[in-house]
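Course assignment 3, question 2. Fill in each field.
Student: A.L.
Task: Predict the tertiary structure for the chain below.
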Amino acid sequence: MPEIMSPLADPAFCPLGVDGVLVRFARALTAEANASASGFCAQIKAAALPGVTELASSLTSVRVGFDPAVTDRQRITAQLRDLLTGLQSADTSPRRLWRIPVAFGPSHAPQLHEAAQLAGLTAEQAVAEITTTMLRVLAIGFAPGQPYLGLMPLHWDIPRQSDLTPHVPRGALVTAVRQLIIFAADTPTGWRQIGQSAFSVWQPDSDTPFLLDAGDGLQFVAVSDDTLRDLQANPDSNGGARCEVLR
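Answer field:
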């Protein structure tokens, strides 16, 4: 079934410098606000409004950059308000569905048991929920192509760590605050590592360096440690990820 947006409260239109407008659908993350943000960003892109120079959706908002030599804040804001009426009847279901293999063995998921305990689950129950929950790419950010994925069930609203883990590898699957991230690069983090993929979210030499888009659907597939090592040894497979175009 397609997802059709129900009317939200009027979003806020906030000025951002001399050449930007922020359209904010909510101050706190909800599935509906996020779908509105990613759906509205796609609508603006399709509309090809004169003077728009940049579009970026976040968890609950869209930044619209514009060229002041071509348009102005009053005009662009009026055009954005006109586009909003179409959002309420827009299909916001994912256009693409990704399936990405992840290993959850002890050597690849050092904090799985800890995260599961905080969520009130066993490790086996946690993996079952992670791999059966249909996730969405909520936003891209922090590092090139890096996705924020969600939303997990409410009991996954677990806090970040009080201290940083000094290093997790590229492709690590981490969790906090009902969200999951696949890391774009080796990095320190306050999120708990609960799995490992061989999927590269950022491919700088490609025509499309960011593989995932906000609004994409995503499902993780559990694989063995041996299978993950085989995928890591075959860079052409990009971690065994598969993308299905839904509409």
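Instructor remarks: Residues 96-245 form a domain with the Cyclophilin fold (CATH 2.40.100.10). The chain has two domains: 12-87, 96-245.
Grade: pending
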